[in-house]
Design goal:
This protein has 297 residues and is α/β, with parallel strands linked by helices. It has 12 helices and 9 strands. Strands 5, 6, 7, 8 and 9 form a 5-stranded mixed sheet that branches. Strands 2-1-3-4 form a 4-stranded parallel sheet, sandwiched between helices. Residues 1-35 have low confidence and may be disordered.
Length: 297
């Protein structure tokens, strides 16, 4: 009996010790003291995190980014450490980072755990909503010794968002169908930051409550939703031809108000799909689709 007890105790100790070893070695994200030293070499594992770092004035310290980090333009010249979905541990280590900033989804959290076991400092942030964005800016600023800059950036973003809201204030909300992909048709539901952006721009999501964040829907649901505006984000630089394609695609729904009134828009996906410092520009891009007359269009 004693032997079995000792064996179970040893096994429990091994499990606990192993669990402790795989936890990310995270930096302190509490308010930074005035003498906190800024990291000289920072790696960003997501485009919106790269934008945050540059907006905080830390661009010169960024020594590694993912392949899709292309804004601001200077970010595109930084060494690449893999893709958003498949970052490379070896490429990150090659940059000799002082701080690694990642998002809180499994692939990047796994990388953070592995790098933490090797002694690298990392900061994991979750950006799923507009509120999360402000918290992430604060956390990144504090971890990188740029707390004051983070507060200023958040104040600037909020002020710009308020200006767009003020422009659309008092107007009737426009029903919007946000298309993630056409075939099969998938749209943004209400439990998304896209839904928040639509609301801030003076619109209302044409889709009601759904089980999934980005649910697939059929023709009957499109007709029942009755959107007044259809928006399709794209990563292509020239959206002129894409809008013609979109118009042609949606003509199968002639009784849908957005189709009948030819209010189908293709907009810059980088502005609206990356929850980062360009949030106000993304909201304004949506507002211009909903109320073009407010912007002299």
């Amino acid at each position: 009996m004693t032997k079995w007890w000792l064996l179970l105790s040893a096994l429990a100790l091994w499990v606990v010790s192993g669990y402790a070893l795989v936890q990310p070695r995270e930096v302190d994200a509490e308010p930074a003291s005035a003498d906190r030293q800024r990291p000289n070499r920072i790696v960003s594992l997501a485009p919106n995190l790269t934008e945050i770092l540059f907006a905080l004035g830390l661009g010169q310290s960024v020594v590694g980014v993912t392949q899709d980090s292309d804004y601001p333009p200077a970010a595109a010249d930084r060494p690449k450490v893999g893709t958003f979905w498949q970052p490379s541990v070896e490429a990150v280590i090659a940059t000799r980072p002082d701080l690694i900033v990642t998002l809180a989804f499994e692939q990047q959290k796994d990388l953070a755990r592995r790098l933490g076991r090797m002694g690298y400092d990392n900061l994991v942030v979750d950006i799923e909503s507009v509120g999360d964005l402000f918290r992430a800016v604060d956390a990144v600023g504090q971890a990188a010794g740029a707390g004051a800059e983070a507060r200023e950036l958040n104040e600037s973003i909020r002020a710009q968002v308020r200006r767009v809201q003020t422009a659309a204030a008092g107007a009737r909300k426009v029903k919007v169908l946000w298309v993630v992909q056409r075939e099969p048709l998938r749209v943004a539901g209400r439990d998304t930051f896209i839904n928040e952006m639509i609301g801030l721009a003076g619109g209302e999501n044409a889709i009601g409550s759904t089980l999934y964040k980005y649910p697939p829907i059929g023709a009957e649901e499109v007709i029942a939703a009755g959107p007044e505006v259809i928006i399709e984000p794209t990563m292509a630089k020239d959206a002129t031809d894409l809008r013609e394609q979109a118009m042609s695609h949606w003509r199968r729904f002639p009784n849908v108000p957005a189709v009948r009134d030819e209010r189908i828009y293709v907009i810059d996906g980088n502005l609206v799909s990356r929850l980062g410092p360009r949030l106000p520009a993304g909201i304004e891009a949506i507002a211009r689709c909903l109320r073009p007359e407010l912007f002299g269009e």
